[in-house]
């Protein structure tokens, strides 16, 4: 009961601070894109800090944080893995659902930091846009965060890895950094209650360019799933 109440208070202040920080950083973000990145970094770090003392949910980043222009292919279990990755990479951006661009606060900031909105069912067009942007230099450099399974996946659940990640990897010629996590054990896809413990996002060994599609997908799935299972076991045995 107490943990549920603490979780409710945490979630409430988290969304209240999203609005307050958006207002605070918007003038700078309008004039300079660096203001938008400062806003999203500050907010994500605030969420991590308040989660630790309000609900006992500590967060840890493991592995080498990518700072160059790369693809980050991450396991996606809840909003928390997004928060954690964005809090540490310098210029994060996403391919996002087109409907999100109309979301208050989130939509405008997402567009400002370079996210690409895509209509559902038109991911091939998104891949083409991103590849063109890299080739022509029209896309600002940064770390493109993608979710190979295309959606949030609960711990222990298994969903197929989609081929779009391999297409981006091949067409851009960029290094891919897999990322594993156990955050779904503490912060579920739905609901308010947050569990205390240590949530981890781990950046794994990079996959350099040049692998064929099948070899890339096999390695990507194996690396992410093996590491995520290990992190989940660590969380459950703590």
Polypeptide structure, described:
The chain is an alpha/beta fold and 238 residues long. It has one domain. Helix content is 49%, strand content 16%. Strand 3, helix 4 and strand 4 (116-118) form a beta-alpha-beta unit.
Write the layout of secondary structure elements.
Layout: H1 2-31, H2 33-54, E1 57-62, E2 70-74, H3 79-88, E3 92-97, H4 106-112, E4 116-118, H5 123-136, E5 143-146, H6 164-172, E6 176-181, E7 197-203, H7 213-237
Parallel strand pairs: 1-7, 2-5, 2-6, 3-4, 3-5
Antiparallel strand pairs: 6-7
Summary of the model, kept short:
This protein is α/β, with parallel strands linked by helices. The protein has helices at residues 2-31, 33-54, 79-88, 106-112, 123-136, 164-172, 213-237; strands at 57-62, 70-74, 92-97, 116-118, 143-146, 176-181, 197-203.
Features:
alpha/beta
State the order of secondary-structure elements, H for helix, E for strand: HHEEHEHEHEHEEH
Annotation, overall tally of beta strands: 7
Radius of gyration: 18 Å
Q: Overall pLDDT, averaged?
A: 90
C-alpha termini separation = 22 Å
């Amino acid at each position: 009961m107490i943990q549920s109440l603490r979780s409710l208070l945490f979630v409430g202040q988290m969304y209240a601070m999203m609005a307050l920080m958006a207002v605070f950083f918007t003038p700078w973000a309008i004039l300079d894109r660096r203001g938008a990145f400062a806003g999203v970094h500050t907010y994500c770090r605030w969420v991590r800090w308040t989660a630790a003392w309000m609900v006992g949910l500590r967060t840890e980043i493991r592995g080498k944080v990518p700072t160059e222009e790369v693809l980050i292919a991450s396991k996606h279990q809840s909003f928390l893995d997004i928060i954690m990755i964005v809090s540490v990479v310098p210029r994060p951006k996403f391919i996002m659902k087109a409907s999100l661009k109309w979301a208050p606060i989130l939509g405008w900031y997402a567009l400002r930091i370079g996210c690409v909105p895509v209509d559902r069912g038109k991911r091939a067009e998104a891949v083409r846009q991103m590849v063109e942007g890299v080739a022509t230099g029209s896309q600002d450099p940064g770390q493109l965060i993608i979710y190979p399974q295309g959606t949030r996946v609960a711990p222990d659940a298994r969903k197929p890895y989609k081929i779009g990640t391999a297409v981006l990897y091949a067409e851009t010629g960029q290094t891919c950094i897999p990322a594993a996590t156990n955050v779904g054990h503490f912060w579920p896809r739905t609901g308010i209650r947050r569990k205390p413990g240590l949530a981890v996002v781990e950046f794994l060994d990079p996959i350099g360019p040049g692998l064929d599609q099948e070899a890339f997908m096999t390695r990507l799935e194996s690396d992410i799933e093996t590491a995520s299972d290990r992190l989940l076991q660590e969380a459950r045995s703590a």
